[in-house]
Structures
1.
Amino acid sequence: MAKHRRPKPPSRSRIATLGMAAGAVSLLPTQSQAAPKPTVDEVRKQVEQLYEEAEAPTEEYNAVREKQEKLQREVDGAQDRLARKQEEINELREKIGPLAAAQYRSGGIDPSVELFLSGDPDDYLDKAQILDRTGDRQADALRAMQSKQRELAQERATAQQRLKSLEETRAKAAAKKDEVQGKLTEARKLLNNLTAAQRAKMEADQERDDASAGASDSPSSYNGPASGRAKTAIEFAYAQLGKPYEWGSTGPNSYDCSGLVGAAWRSAGVSLPRTVKQMYDAGRKVAKSDLQPGDIIYWYNDNQHNGMYVGNGKAIHAPRTGKNIEIVPLDSMPFFAASRP
């Protein structure tokens, strides 16, 4: 009968290894463990960052949309010209038709034979002169039609190129629109994850910050030192106080930052380009120490956000999604530059 061997007890080193492994496993997060939710302050900072990141593509979208509208007008004009030229060609064809028929009816007989057969040489000569003139008119009409056909071909090629550019511009606008909406959707998701109490706290914190910045007690009418067109522009902007920011909007019920500046100066008879960057490039630059009411303020950089200086160290602007047009201290955001329309 075979003897059964008793199993060897595990060595101390193996026991230690197993113990370390078990400890390591116990430190791994289980599936039921979720990542800690961000605090209200963290959500607020993330949302502010997303709104700020949405401003640059918003201005790019505005520029592309402006180009798209210009191309659309050019395409419409080209199509109208194509239609007119085609009508002119059709009219010339109708004129050439009878002339060609007359020449065909008389052109098959040699002129000397026709003169020999003619019972009235004077009548023949009269007809010959008419046919000569008919041939001249036909040649002129043919040349005119050929010229119109060349113009039509050139116009058609130009129209096709404009249509191609228009489609490319539409695609760019759609891409920028998606980029902006993606940022805003992400911000909304963060806000929707907050409880009602957290949202209330976040709104209260925002109101407190606005009050400390001087944005909550903005006067409803302007009575500052501006005059002339600048005063008209500022008064228009003041009349928009409390209206919501909406990206891509130029009024009258909502505005984005450059939309408000452009509409304000337009009310004073001054036409400005559409975007922050275009306004910056077109305006006469002024130093911060030389600011006058009505000057355009650029914060952060030359293509992201702008507003209008109203005097006494304050500016009016359309801030961002979720906020309304307000008056803030000039240095509430990093000052970049200023220009005068």
2.
Amino acid sequence: MLSFLARRIAAALGTLLLASVLVFLAVQALPGDVATQVLGKDATPDAVAALRGQLGLDRPAWERYTDWVGGALHGDFGTSLVTGKAVGGEVSAYLGNSALIAGITILFAVTGSIVLGVLAGLYRDRWPDHLISTVSLVGMSVPEFVVATVLVLCFSIALPWFPAVVLYGPDASVGQLLPAVWLPALALAVVMAAYIVRMARTSVIDVMASEYVTTARLKGLSTWRVVTRHALPGALLPTLHVIALNVAWLAGGVAVVENVFNYPGIGKLMLSSVQNRDLPVIQAIALVSSVVYVACNLAADLATMALNPKLRTRGRTR
């Protein structure tokens, strides 16, 4: 178990190191000059050269990378080229707002999709299965911004229950943002849950046809006990990685939805940073997204090990 955990953590750290290199190289490869973008096209060559020296752009790339990674390990991502504020504090404010949406989305999408997937698998080829499968296919086919637009039309215009846009900035409190969180979270949950439902349904069908479930039924166990004690743990194993990938997808999917609702989250900050060519902020957001992705996959691996006794005892049986 310890060797399994050590290998997974080592792989996660190696992935983050590689991601940091790719993020840095990709941002540096963006067309145009940062100093010219900040000062404007009418800036003199001397002013551009001075700003490039101030920003350290005249230094070798490997020096800038090591300084950036070293600072990031201590929570220092540099200074924003647009606002002049510390990037770490600015990203944290927006990230906290996005975490509010992500938390609600994960809560409803994961729990709801597992329940629906189990029902579809248990009632295979009957009307609950057909209904759930059809709705999930629609959710997989429709982009999140279309779902968000439909939700605005239904629950902000036709039925004015929720605000269509957010008028607060990144420093808004949870109480101020809470009324506007539900529609973005629902839009993300619809798209996210569709993939988990399909995987959970397939897993339940496979597990219910297995020999150990058949044996449990022959022993006279109730359907509820067979599902909860025998089928569900086995069905969750292949579903965990789909859940992890979809949770990591929130880092990108939330950007589109936040832009629709004008929500002050990390996605909106990323779009504005790309438009303003604020490289330190772009690098910080990309690195944070990589950390979220790696952490989700690591959590899925650990959960798989916890649910699968074979992985915990593999090292002892050799």
3.
Amino acid sequence: MTKAVLTTDLSLPNKRSGKVRDLYDVTLADGEEALLIVATDRISAFDVVLSNGLPGKGIVLTQISKFWFDYFSAAQTPQKIDHHLISTDVADVPGLSADECSVLKNRVMLCKKTEVVPIECIARGYITGSGWKDYLASGSVCGIKLPAGLQNSDRLAEPLFTPSTKAVDGHDENISFAQGASVVGEELMQWLGEITLSLYTHARDYAAQRGIILADTKFEFGLVPGSEQPLLIDEIFTPDSSRFWPANDWQPGREQASFDKQVVRNYLETVVQAGEWDKTSPGPELPQEVVERSIARYLEAYRLLTGSQLSL
């Protein structure tokens, strides 16, 4: 197994870090300003970044995003959309040393710089997660009334657009369509809702043909200065931004097995129950067996979605 890349310190300006990714500014050969997104192997759970990561996880996330960006750019795709991805080839990133290129191979996205639209665009085809919690409390999700008697993980009659705020710190907060419109305007909010549901529906149908349920997903969009047409940005349809379930194991009324870090969360819950952790930083180190089972789930998602094996 490859060694985990937990942090980077590149010879590029303006480094900033999220829970999983490191971002840098890049100036391209033609003078255009761009953004470099490095997917590290850090993993977070319960809003805590754990001390060890999943070796190769950043590569899997990057390559799944590339697959979907290519898919929705292809001439024959049922839903085309412009996006921010310029290249995933580290050789296209100026200013890196040979050693840096070696470490970053297959885990970078060189992207157009955009002003991020401050709305997290979420599509839900199944009632689960925070949507399930909202439904139990109010019978609604983001102000959308749902039928009585739904079970956890039930398929919804029609996918829902359930936006949320993009929090700088802490948790995003589910909001109504009207609340979102008050932030970005009615016209843009309408477009965001329509494109979110269209992208979700096409990806859901694609995944279903490959034995995967795409339960829900989230998108981000950005605006290039001087343009009124938003671009699809960030990662898309990865196990970190979406819930993928094996179709042959789906059973409403319970939590589902997921192609994501569910193995990690399940292990951490046992640590919490044993009184050995209180879900605050720093988090416990993951045992090797949990690491291996988790990255295997990510790789299986890649294989099923793309039809190809990914070697780490």
4.
Amino acid sequence: MQINMLKTNYIKGYKMNKKRKHKNRKISINKTNKIIRQRHREKYHHVKGIKNGRNGKKRYILNKVIKLLDLKKFYYKIDRKDNVVIIEIPSIFSLITNPEQTIQTLKKIFTAIQNEKINELFLDYSKCEELGLCASSVTDIIILNAIKYRKMINKPLNPRGNIPKSDEARKIFIISGLIKHLGISKVEDKNIIRLDIIKNEEQGKMTDKIIQYYDRCLNTQNYQLTVQGKSRFAHMIGEVLDNVNQHAGELATWYASGHFNIDKNRKDGKCRLVLFDFGNSIYEGLNREDTTEYTKKLLRDKTKEHYNIFNKKWNEEPLWMLYVLQYNVSRKRIDINDDRGKGTIKLINNFMNIGKNMDGNNPKMAILSGNGYILFDSTYTLKEENVNGQNIPIIAFNEENDLSKKPDSKYVKRIDENFPGTMISMEFYLDRKYIEKQMEESL
């Protein structure tokens, strides 16, 4: 009898333990599923109100641009009337010459498209006199992604607007801007050569298309790149794309765009070329763990060197940006003998040298990444300096051309607004007479 009772108690205990184990297993599975769902939410953009078939479960949509701009908190206060928002485009809408106000405007556009109560967005270009291809291209990418996104969540967005004030801004808007990409404008101009927005293509293909476009622009001046010239430019642009891509991160999306306008009377022209990504900034990329110890030490040393002169407009972010532009500086450089980090500085130098015209107009180029801003307009140029017995090309943006001293705040600075990625925007001239003059002087 005692044995049977012990046996019965053992069996009951066994059953209770079995139930407890089963319950604990269910809890564990639920926790695991919860973690998986959380990771899924972090990877994909969660769209409310979309039902998947009969079960009515919510699903997730992958839209890298919308997701990344949301994660970067790319928002700004806007005023809306019922379901309509009117956003006034500033008189200078350019990331080269008016970066902070331009970024604020781009943030307003993104804020409006994220608000599901807004179904009409009106972009008022009536006061816009200067339209940069850089600002126009970023606007186009945000709006085009917004239209797709809002269709997916069954909250359609109707973007409308008017036309810029000046002739030059109007041409960029109509020939290379949003209404062209939406298929609304059928206007073509034989005096304009466009590089339609290239997006998310393999680096080699993107480089080839940019080189072909630049060569087409040169052809208007009866010049063309030699095989060696194409190879050199391909190497430089490829290295620039590779360098920025190293910083950009997993959610990055890459774009390139171009607009060349030929002067009817003179037959020379102004070329605009834009390379940009939505992703991590250069500074964020340099702070990643996989930056080499060699480069980390160089950056730490530069920070110590400048620490006592840091202020609101000059801090570690623009300092690091300026430093990685220099000759033989790269996030992946492993030691002093490593040959990386020459493409960006060579590209800048080539465009600055060839990009002037006979009227004395200088090319402009801006690099904008996170809160860092660098402007090139030929005021400060690349010069060879003797460093440890070697002649090395340096551009420090100060009279002494010394990287240990603070640069001119007009040209290198921290801006208050944050660009969510990296923008390289170039405006330069192609003038046959000036090119011939440069060739004669080089002989």
